[in-house]
Amino acid sequence: MKIHGLVPAFFLLLIPGCSLVELNHSEDYTSSPAEEYEVLSQGSPVLIRFVQDVDQYSVEQTVSIKDHDGKVDVKILWEDDRTLTMFPLSDPVAGLEYHLEFNGYYTRGDGKSVESKLSLPFYWVKSEFTPLRILSFWPSDGTIVSENAELVINFSNDVDEASLVRGLSISPDIEMNRRWSDHTLLLSPVEDWENLKTYTIKMTDEVKNSSGTPLFPSWESSFYVQYGTEIPSVLSVGSCSRDGSTDFEPLEGSLTTLTHDQALRIHFSQPMDHSLTESAFTLTPSLAGDFFWSNDPLRTGIEDLVFLPRDGFRMSQSYRLRIASSAQGNTGITMSSDFYCDFTPAIEEQSLLTLECLSYGGFTLNSYNSDLSYDLPAGPVSPFSLSFRFTFSRPFTSDLEKQNVQTRLNIFELFSSGGSPRAGLFSWTTDTTMTVLFSGFNADALSDYYYILELPGGEGGIVNDEGSFFPEDVRQLFRVARL
Length: 483
What we know:
The protein is mainly beta and 483 residues long. The chain has helices at residues 6-12, 56-60, 161-167, 274-279, 399-408, and strands spanning 21-23, 29-32, 38-40, 46-50, 63-67, 70-71, 74-80, 83-88, 98-107, 113-124, 134-138, 143-145, 151-155, 168-171, 176-181, 184-189, 197-203, 219-225, 234-240, 250-252, 263-268, 281-284, 289-295, 303-309, 319-323, 339-343, 352-357, 364-365, 374-375, 384-392, 410-414, 422-430, 433-441, 449-455, 474-480. The protein is 7% helix and 41% strand.
């Protein structure tokens, strides 16, 4: 017959000499903190009060206070035979999450062994924790640096100098010069770093800000020293042709005259790793595009990075170019900091300079209003036609551009059922001047007729090959007064 595991366990409890283990319930002791995430006041100890005498040694072996790094060093005192108190040996960090752990077996005064299962998170002083943080560090972990490279550590706020001495270490040990720029610590060796050597820099939570809040989490990074290597950098960003057959000919050394149909050409101080440098490139707002590498015409052996946007740069849009410090030269050394370049393409807005009615009794407008109407001359017979001439500030040079203007130009009849006029004949006397004959205007003695003419603006409106568009819709309300 098969005996299930619970049966022999039961009989073991009946064997003489075996002690009975009881599971602890909350009535055996109380604690402070008493609830999860309770906030203890400054200087308050952690307490456990038992309802009966206990073997103090067995309790001390199972109780602890822990933080993110493990056990906290504490001083344990007994106020009486039943009350254990724990005082941290160092000042607790306000807002940092601690845990009261009482897990395991202890012995009561009556000799019975009791299992406790308690893990209680709590805080001292407050429940919000804003630690000192390292925002950035150069060189990044694993980077190769030159013999006199300067370490750059950017903290989230002020650092207490005395704590930095205690909590920062560099191995192998080397004498360092230290200077500050706001919250950025710059470290350089008094003498050069040792060649072909790996150095490790560490910071523990001994490093604190000026308010005593520690660094969190602890941090370390390593770098390798190789003599004869220099830190790569971006020298300049300019514009260039989009034509790959001319090797993306450089146009300007800056972006002040960048146009819709040009590309970016980025000049570096040394040959760069193509893949890592392209990965370090970002443009905000983003534009789809392609990367190319083109030989620098003035510096043998160095290539420039070319970014070719697929749809061109947008008018009136400000961009931010960033080359992250992860961009790496062929020597294996990365840039020491991020590079930024803010620019706005030099693309002029499109505007309608004049709108002329060329028919008898016509007029010329150079400002436009969709709320106040302007009277159109009425023809002798209804329906009648009117001829208009549009003069634009920027050219529409190709047939496709001109066709887009003709297609997107609209005139609508409002408020009645007379029907909207139709564009019957277009002509372009120059790339900026278009004449249109509209037919289907109405006039009678019974009512006024209202029409609105519209040229759509914005990026989704009428755009020429330069990238110019109307900042907003151009709309003009017209009226044909009753006869």
